[in-house]
Design a protein that fits this description.
Elongation Factor Tu (Ef-tu), domain 3; alpha+beta; about 15% helix; Alpha-Beta Plaits
Length: about 400
């Protein structure tokens, strides 16, 4: 039986899940665990629990036969790719090697002025326990403690991999902050190498040109292309992993939701050169309070806003983006001064432009290295790492 996924239960620990390829398994069997990629692995173990699946539920059974998808508990060091077999005739089954992480982010405790108002789990201990618990079931993830007690380095197979973890934690009631994704580089022969992904794209012929242009600007190299039936084409690219950060949402827009994109780790290769960064700057609030229509009306002339009227803001929070490429400080909590003089048109309602709401993937691409995303169960806010305006200017000068 080849273990294809790992479940976790607080009472029995790891549960290895897979399909029985040959033979019969009993709950009380003495078995061995072997691995095709680790010839020296030969662990003799005993199964404590045996489960079969009925819908989404696990049902405890005494025996299971060939073809059944089962879960086995009692094997502490079980991992994806391991083979469970009879002790008298161990035979390791082949499986696809799991790719190593290529992208890392820092997860840290939320320290904004609005911290603790939304989440149920906000402390570093709670966040750390949740992250390390994820390792029980996600073999492509890596967690490392940092020099700071309230921050943890989380590495995964890509932006989407880490986005799923962030979304799951948010829905579970966790509140935390994440940094801009960074590529995991390696030094080989004295040169910096970066992870390269093989991207396979299936799109309608009318969108092929746009996809080639966009991936080309992200240092993607077209290596193969062929037309398929029904007016669709398949194109293969080799592209740096950093070039894919934030691209999935853009890909969906460019192909009107009809494209299919798959990625696989290819190799580490010499650094491909700089990729153009965002051309937008951040519009930053320099005061704390609730946003007003009057303040937003003045701010929207400087760029595109991320928030509407009546939302809580704080100093250092990013409330929009500026097309000039420079960071701007504005007051979005400003109220109109009261006056006993009525001017023509002064009482007309202020018109605000539609708010631009970013997805998590878009926000991860938008933020710079000096910015963070504040994640709570009901909100996602962008902010500067250094909230105080004066301290931020001093830091830039240094």
């Amino acid at each position: 039986m080849l273990i294809s996924t790992i479940d976790y239960n607080e009472y029995v620990g790891k549960v290895g899940v897979g399909r029985i390829e040959r033979g019969t398994i009993n709950r009380t069997d003495n078995v061995v665990v072997v691995n095709a990629l680790d010839p020296d692995k030969l662990d003799k173990v005993k199964i404590s629990k045996l489960y079969e699946f009925e819908g989404l539920d696990k049902v405890e059974v005494e025996t299971a036969k060939m073809g059944s998808i089962v879960g086995v508990a009692g094997i502490e060091d079980i991992n994806i790719g391991d083979t469970i077999c009879i002790d008298s005739n161990p035979e390791a089954l082949d499986f696809v090697k799991i790719s190593q992480p290529t992208i890392s982010m820092t997860f840290s405790v939320n320290n904004s002025p609005l911290a603790g108002k939304d989440g149920d789990f906000v402390t570093s201990r709670q966040i750390r326990n949740r992250l390390y618990r994820e390792l029980q079931t996600d073999v492509g993830l890596r967690i490392e403690d940092t020099d700071a007690t309230d921050a943890f380095k989380v590495s995964g197979r890509g932006e989407l991999h880490l986005s799923v973890l962030i979304e799951n934690m948010r829905r579970e009631g966790y509140e935390f902050q994440v940094s801009k994704p960074e590529v995991l580089y390696k030094t080989m022969d004295g040169k910096r190498h970066e992870p390269i992904e093989r991207v396979t794209v299936d799109v309608s012929n009318e969108f092929v040109g746009t996809v080639i242009e966009k991936l080309g600007s992200r240092k993607g190299e077209l290596v193969n292309m062929q037309e398929s039936k029904g007016g669709y084409a398949r194109a293969e690219f080799l592209i740096p992993a950093r070039g894919l950060i934030g691209y999935r949402q853009e890909f969906l827009t460019d192909t009107k939701g009809n494209g299919v994109l798959n990625t696989n780790f290819e190799e580490y290769a010499p650094y491909k050169g700089d990729i153009p960064k965002r051309k937008m700057g951040s519009i930053i609030s320099f005061d704390t309070g609730d946003s007003t229509a009057y303040g937003l009306h003045n701010a929207q002339e400087r760029g595109t806003l991320f928030i509407g009227a009546g939302e809580a803001v704080y100093e250092g929070m990013i409330v929009g983006m500026s097309p000039k490429g420079l960071d701007l400080e504005v007051s979005v909590t400003k109220k109109k001064q009261q006056s006993n003089v009525r001017a023509s048109g002064s009482d007309e309602a202020l018109r605000l432009s539609p708010v631009s709401k970013m997805s998590l993937e878009e926000a991860l691409e938008f933020i710079e290295s000096d910015e963070l995303i504040e994640i709570t169960p009901h909100n996602m806010r962008l902010r500067k790492k250094i909230l105080n305006t004066n301290l931020r200017y001093k830091s830039k000068k240094k």
